[in-house]
Amino acid sequence: MTQPFVLSPDLQQAVASFFQRIPFNQVLGIELDELSPERVTMHLPMKPELIGNFVHGILHGGVISSLLDVCGGAMALIGAFANHQHLPAAERMSKLSRLGTIDLRIDYLRPGRGQRFTATALPLRAGNKVAVIRMELHNDEGVLVAVGTGTYLCG
């Protein structure tokens, strides 16, 4: 019987380091809040460079999509760690290095108004090769701005 997966502090740091080292994530200003096998949460503060509608000061749809994709990718990576924990480290890292988005659907529900946006990702399915993740984006008042579903290659 397989042992339940525990996201140790070392693995949490590895996932956090992986996403913090991506230059585009740094440009957006994405910050990690929670990494667990059940949920990933991250946020970004609004800044002038992220505005799409300059008349109303609304967050750009591409930023919304990117934040949800990054959050979903982190959730998929954690699922991949869990599914490949039995493999030798070199083989596991080889599989994890191929993580990528296969499909991404975003539904924009409301304009991105706010000073801080929080993305949450929950696993719907984490298989050996593909993970399906559900994401939500809320503003700082708790208003649901967008939802998404991402499919990720993870092995």
TrEMBL record:
Gene3D superfamilies: Hotdog Thioesterase
Highest taxon of the lineage: Bacteria
Keywords of this entry: Hydrolase
Enzyme class of the recorded protein, top EC level: hydrolase
Domain Thioesterase: 56-145
Known EC number: 3.1.2.20
InterPro entries, per database record: HotDog_dom_sf, PAAI_dom, Thioestr_dom
Known catalytic reactions: a long-chain fatty acyl-CoA + H2O = a long-chain fatty acid + CoA + H(+); a fatty acyl-CoA + H2O = a fatty acid + CoA + H(+); a medium-chain fatty acyl-CoA + H2O = a medium-chain fatty acid + CoA + H(+)
GO molecular function: fatty acyl-CoA hydrolase activity
Keyword Hydrolase carried by entry: yes
Family classification: Belongs to the YigI thioesterase family.
Protein name: Medium/long-chain acyl-CoA thioesterase YigI
Organism, as annotated: Ectopseudomonas guguanensis
The organism's taxonomic lineage, starting at the top: Bacteria, Pseudomonadati, Pseudomonadota, Gammaproteobacteria, Pseudomonadales
